Amino acid sequence: MSSCDHNLAVTVNLTSTSKIQNWAGTDDVLMRRVEADAGTSMLVLEAPKQGKVSDYEMKSADLDVELGNPDAEYSCGVKMPSGECAPVCPDLSHTGDPGVAFCAKDRARFSPSAETWERKY
Protein backbone atom coordinates (compact mmCIF):
# COMPACT_ATOMS: atom_id res chain seq x y z
CA MET A 1 0.00 0.00 0.00
CA SER A 2 1.23 3.45 -0.83
CA SER A 3 -0.02 6.91 -0.02
CA CYS A 4 1.15 10.36 -0.97
CA ASP A 5 -0.60 13.69 -0.53
CA HIS A 6 1.30 15.29 -3.42
CA ASN A 7 4.17 14.62 -5.81
CA LEU A 8 7.56 14.97 -4.21
CA ALA A 9 11.01 14.37 -5.70
CA VAL A 10 13.35 12.72 -3.19
CA THR A 11 17.03 11.93 -3.58
CA VAL A 12 18.30 8.78 -1.91
CA ASN A 13 21.65 7.08 -1.41
CA LEU A 14 21.23 3.96 -3.56
CA THR A 15 24.08 2.07 -1.91
CA SER A 16 22.60 2.46 1.57
CA THR A 17 19.07 1.76 0.33
CA SER A 18 20.27 -1.39 -1.43
CA LYS A 19 21.93 -2.70 1.74
CA ILE A 20 18.76 -2.17 3.76
CA GLN A 21 16.64 -3.85 1.05
CA ASN A 22 18.92 -6.88 1.15
CA TRP A 23 18.19 -7.29 4.87
CA ALA A 24 14.45 -7.54 4.16
CA GLY A 25 12.80 -10.94 4.07
CA THR A 26 10.10 -11.87 1.56
CA ASP A 27 7.28 -11.09 4.02
CA ASP A 28 8.85 -7.91 5.41
CA VAL A 29 7.55 -4.42 4.65
CA LEU A 30 9.84 -1.60 3.55
CA MET A 31 8.51 1.97 3.65
CA ARG A 32 10.07 5.33 2.94
CA ARG A 33 8.64 8.24 4.91
CA VAL A 34 9.37 11.71 3.65
CA GLU A 35 8.20 15.11 4.78
CA ALA A 36 8.58 18.05 2.43
CA ASP A 37 11.54 20.29 3.24
CA ALA A 38 12.75 17.97 6.02
CA GLY A 39 16.17 17.30 4.47
CA THR A 40 15.96 13.66 5.52
CA SER A 41 13.87 10.62 4.77
CA MET A 42 13.14 7.66 7.01
CA LEU A 43 13.43 4.12 5.70
CA VAL A 44 11.34 1.79 7.89
CA LEU A 45 11.82 -1.98 7.74
CA GLU A 46 9.08 -4.00 9.45
CA ALA A 47 9.49 -7.72 10.09
CA PRO A 48 6.00 -8.81 11.25
CA LYS A 49 6.99 -12.44 11.91
CA GLN A 50 9.76 -11.35 14.30
CA GLY A 51 7.80 -8.39 15.67
CA LYS A 52 10.66 -6.03 14.78
CA VAL A 53 10.67 -2.53 13.35
CA SER A 54 13.93 -0.86 12.30
CA ASP A 55 14.17 2.84 11.39
CA TYR A 56 16.97 4.24 9.23
CA GLU A 57 17.23 8.00 8.81
CA MET A 58 18.89 9.06 5.56
CA LYS A 59 20.03 12.55 4.64
CA SER A 60 18.66 13.81 1.33
CA ALA A 61 20.95 15.53 -1.15
CA ASP A 62 19.78 18.67 -2.88
CA LEU A 63 20.49 17.57 -6.44
CA ASP A 64 19.14 20.74 -8.01
CA VAL A 65 21.84 22.70 -6.19
CA GLU A 66 24.62 20.10 -6.29
CA LEU A 67 24.22 19.09 -9.93
CA GLY A 68 22.74 22.26 -11.36
CA ASN A 69 19.61 20.47 -12.59
CA PRO A 70 16.83 22.77 -13.75
CA ASP A 71 13.39 22.55 -12.17
CA ALA A 72 11.63 19.56 -13.68
CA GLU A 73 8.09 18.32 -13.80
CA TYR A 74 7.77 14.57 -13.40
CA SER A 75 5.11 12.89 -15.51
CA CYS A 76 5.23 9.36 -14.11
CA GLY A 77 5.72 7.31 -11.00
CA VAL A 78 6.85 3.72 -10.56
CA LYS A 79 5.47 1.29 -7.98
CA MET A 80 7.16 -2.09 -7.72
CA PRO A 81 7.68 -4.83 -5.13
CA SER A 82 10.85 -4.44 -3.05
CA GLY A 83 12.11 -7.79 -4.38
CA GLU A 84 12.10 -6.38 -7.91
CA CYS A 85 13.50 -3.04 -6.81
CA ALA A 86 16.44 -4.50 -4.83
CA PRO A 87 18.63 -5.37 -7.85
CA VAL A 88 17.96 -1.97 -9.44
CA CYS A 89 19.82 0.03 -6.77
CA PRO A 90 23.27 -1.58 -7.21
CA ASP A 91 22.87 -1.35 -10.98
CA LEU A 92 22.08 2.36 -10.85
CA SER A 93 24.86 3.19 -8.39
CA HIS A 94 27.49 1.26 -10.40
CA THR A 95 28.82 4.26 -12.34
CA GLY A 96 28.41 6.92 -9.67
CA ASP A 97 26.42 9.02 -12.15
CA PRO A 98 22.77 9.99 -11.63
CA GLY A 99 20.41 7.19 -12.66
CA VAL A 100 17.76 7.55 -15.34
CA ALA A 101 14.28 6.01 -15.40
CA PHE A 102 12.34 5.64 -18.64
CA CYS A 103 8.63 5.11 -18.01
CA ALA A 104 5.84 3.79 -20.22
CA LYS A 105 2.28 2.82 -19.38
CA ASP A 106 3.08 -0.82 -18.60
CA ARG A 107 6.83 -0.86 -17.92
CA ALA A 108 9.85 1.03 -16.65
CA ARG A 109 13.49 0.89 -17.73
CA PHE A 110 16.31 1.95 -15.42
CA SER A 111 19.81 2.93 -16.47
CA PRO A 112 22.81 4.27 -14.53
CA SER A 113 23.29 6.78 -17.35
CA ALA A 114 21.32 7.72 -20.44
CA GLU A 115 24.40 6.91 -22.54
CA THR A 116 25.41 3.55 -21.04
CA TRP A 117 23.84 0.09 -20.83
CA GLU A 118 20.37 -0.34 -19.45
CA ARG A 119 18.59 -3.08 -17.54
CA LYS A 120 14.89 -3.60 -18.33
CA TYR A 121 12.33 -4.44 -15.65
UniProtKB/TrEMBL annotation:
The protein's matches in InterPro entries, at most eight in alphabetical order, are given as: DNA_clamp_sf, Pr_cel_nuc_antig, Pr_cel_nuc_antig_C, Pr_cel_nuc_antig_N
State whether keyword Transcription regulation applies.
no
UniProt domain Proliferating cell nuclear antigen PCNA N-terminal: residue ranges: 4-66
GO terms under cellular component: PCNA complex
Q: Does the keyword Acetylation apply?
A: no
Q: Name the residues that span the membrane.
A: none
Sorted alphabetically, which keywords does the UniProt record give?
Answer: DNA-binding
Alphabetical list of Pfam families matching this protein: PCNA_C (PF02747), PCNA_N (PF00705)
Q: Where is the Proliferating cell nuclear antigen PCNA C-terminal domain?
A: 69-113
The GO annotation for biological process reads: leading strand elongation; mismatch repair; regulation of DNA replication; translesion synthesis
GO MF, any single term: DNA binding
**Entries under SUPFAM superfamilies matching the protein:** DNA clamp
Family of this protein? Belongs to the PCNA family.
- UniProt function note: Auxiliary protein of DNA polymerase delta and epsilon, is involved in the control of eukaryotic DNA replication by increasing the polymerase's processibility during elongation of the leading strand. Induces a robust stimulatory effect on the 3'-5' exonuclease and 3'-phosphodiesterase, but not apurinic-apyrimidinic (AP) endonuclease, APEX2 activities. Has to be loaded onto DNA in order to be able to stimulate APEX2.
* Name of the protein in question: Proliferating cell nuclear antigen
**Provenance organism:** Lynx pardinus
